Amino acid sequence: MSAAFPFATPDSARLAAADLPPRVRELLGELLVLCRHVLTAPLILTVEAAEQALLHDADHARNPQMQAELLAQRGQLHAFAATFCDRMLDALADSLVQLRAPQDTAPPTTSARPPGLLGLSLVDDHEVDRNLVLTEMVRRENQRSGNSLNLLGQRLAVLAAAPAFDNDTLPLAPQALCTLVRRLAEQDGLSAELQLALYRSFERQLLERLGDVLERANNLLAQHGVLPGLVYTPYLARSSSTRRIITQSVGGGRATQPAPRSAEPLTGWGSTGRAGSWSALMQNAFADAVPPGAANPELTTPPANLLHDLLQQARHAAPMAIEPPSVPSGLVDAVLARLQAQAGAATSITDLQTAVTAQLRSEHGAQAQLGSHDRDHLDLLRLLLQQVQQQQRPDPVPAALLARLQVPLARAAMADPAFFVRDEHPARELLNTIAEAGANWLGDDDVDPQLMQRLAQSVQGLLGQDARTPEAFAAANEEIQQHQRAAAHRAELAERRHVEAARGKERLALARREASAQIDQQCQAQEPPRFVQTLLREAWADALTLTRLRHGDDSAQWQERLQQTERIAAVTAAPAGADSVPDAPLAAEVEAALLQVGYHPEEASAVARRLATPGGEDEHTSRTELSARLKARARLGEHAAGSTSTHDAAPRSAAEQACHEQLTNLPFGSWFDLADENGSVRRQRLSWYSLLTGHVLFVNPRGQKSSETDLDTLARQMAAGRAQLVTEEKGRLVDRAWQASLSALRALAGRRRQEPDA
What we know:
Shape: elongated
Distance between the termini: 57 Å
Number of helices: 27
Largest sheet: 5 strands, antiparallel
Structural class: mainly alpha
């Protein structure tokens, strides 16, 4: 088990101060890391989706007053969004850290429960609406995730040394999460309508994904020994027909298979998923190969024997009548040990097998050959490595490491009968680590010299040991994993900087969008001269954007800028006359605002005079000269505005729309395989995306920004097959390679069985 806190986490101080046993503190620390990793994206998207809905409603408002009200609500929600995610996660962390604290058994107050009729008091309709919405949200999610909630309540009770938690007291239950959302919304004074919009967005973005969060929390605790075999099977009274169906399905000779789980996006650093179960792959492979109605051999035959039988069928339809004498496995291993000392003399398993056979015949006679099981192990390893090598990049360094690793792998496979059926065999774990490095981490822009050096040192150290023991592979792999954990931490820090920069650009783009909306509103209402409208959209928009960005929607400075905008539109909309003079106070305010965004004093004064004079006229500067100066200036937020999604292309097809909906529900950190113009595929991490602007940020496995796009473009690429989401079951290269090897082996055996006997 890994150390509790290899690096500082946001909850380290909480756990250190808690009066908890070391083992409980360690498990809660890993659970909190999981919660922050999985829940951050849904919490951010909760507020962003609600903001997007308000902006959409504002764009389609029936009148300016309604539009202003919706924009004001959106500003209030935007201020709430700044701390919502962190406050939710901190409150959840506090509740988990205080698992062993005495529970409050007092009945809930009347303010915390839906109001009843006992007091015959008048109740606000909005209060009833909020209670009903939250109650229904909790009820629906309790029904969807009841099994996972019960299991997690039992496991957390072990950590708390207390009776099992029910749905009303479990920290990760829908009841607790909805209570936290409502408490934060009321503390910040969100209006009732805004709270309802927030609750509905919270259900779509987080509660509907809560089942996956609970399942991952259960898996984490089970893997660390907290009730690992726990199942929840409620008693259901079955009718005789139901019992007959179950009996027939069990007695038919085929083991029932669990329903397939939905594919989970791969989000862990290193772009590799959880280790797959090779024993389960064997069972599924042979279960599918059994004809209907036939007895299933996997129920009585060990998986390793089934694998050897399948390999024999693939070689020939009938066994040979006379088998040449075979050499004992001990002598074969002695030859492999000498080849291992030569540091990878063979370049493939076929060459290795030829070299071993030649050496045996030179020492034990011309008829000597490998035993059937030794030959089977080498053939199976050859199939596996062929599939692994097909997914490698054309880089000589990882190819050389894989070649040097073949002899130790051959010795481990021949020494351990369960090499191909045991879950998470240390030798296969080391193979996967090196293969993943060659396939994903060692791209042209992703080279990690320290990782390459660590891989070479680990393989070199393994060549000097007895490679038959799993401990030797485990020690070599642990050295690499220590380096990768440190590299993942550095990548996470680098990614965080890029995400913060992207979110800053988004805030700038949204501020510019809102400034433009306010200017458009005043231009439509007052209809100032066309040149004044140009000055408002090019110069004054910068001042509005900066104020909105610095102080927010609910600030006095922003309200002052809006009043100035209205005054500018009203003054310039008046007809120009011979005695028209600038509004001196307004001109001074406009000039000061433009100086804050970097305008030259002469330019700021010229723009201010035109924006404060009836008709927008100014005898001191010409329109042509002022227009030329403004076009030469860089606009505030111009680069950020270009990153927003402004697609006017053809409407998305059904497949593209489905991909777009899938993207908007993905957690941050999901990995994608992206194909470039040359067809080469690179694995990149979707670090962040915005539902408001559609902006998407990708980083490479080292946490450095690799590309930027938008949700619409990415959805179209997914529909066209140029972008593929990497899921947990497809994350590990060695698991995919073994599954492909089994499929190829079964196909070959099937063809041999269909061939007519000679």
